[in-house]
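Record type: ASSEMBLY
Status: queued
Input:
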Amino acid sequence: MQVEVYPDAQGAGRAVARMVARFVQVKPDSVLGLATGHTMAPLYGELVRLHEEESVSFKDAVAINLDEYVGLGTGHVDSLREFMMLRLISQIDLPVSSFNILRGRAHDLDSECERYAGVIEAAGGIDLQLLGLGRNGHIGFNEPGSAADSRVRVVDLTETTKAVNAGDFRKINKSPAKGITLGVADVLDARRIVMMVTGWEKAEILHRTLTTAPTADVPATFLHPHSDVILVADREAMELFYEREREQSLSFSLAPPTG
Ligand code: GLP
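Status: finished
Output:
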């Protein structure tokens, strides 16, 4: 895993935006695996700016989002679909028809998972997968206990995730109990993975992720064996790692942990 550390969340967002922009410039029809969450806000703001001011185009790209809440979807302000529409898709030239996200309001959720697996396959797989990190080590909605070979599926959200995300909702007054998500194996199939982690609230789980060998207890540790993973973090998120591991460098290659 390559680790790149920036002074703050804005700097981390700008760095990942540059990576994404370079990606679509080199391969205009890139398949981008996109994520939601507060961490992604500076990134999407910067991508919109790069589109408006530096003519970065997404018109031939395909977006495949990571997850959604069960019960939420099109037109629901609290859905992850609306988060994406508002912050990114409606502000760049990626056609809405090329924007894919799981339908949390599908009547038959198993068929929805199958449909989505087909979307990924038809797109030729994900070139660049963006990930945030949950405070309990989840990636997407792959909560602790998720298997390395898990695929697109419906999951029960943990109490931690429900509590942390509760503040994000405008219309609903209770966190959804279930999510629908790409599996760990779907994430690992991506050709390149960029995980963004910012803020002191993530320092403990990031230290644990970086120093723990792959285990379902911390699903983000499944990223270690992947051959092309970049962690883009800010100083706050790296604080405990720097302190405990006596590391100071802002850019380094991390050997896969064995313990
Ligand atoms: C959420 C999402 C994840 C996201 C993570 C971190 O529950 N399902 O995809 O990456 O938790 O979110 P945040 O960036 O708001 O801390």
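Annotation: The chain has eight helices and eleven strands.
Annotation: Residues 9-26 form the longest helix (18 residues).
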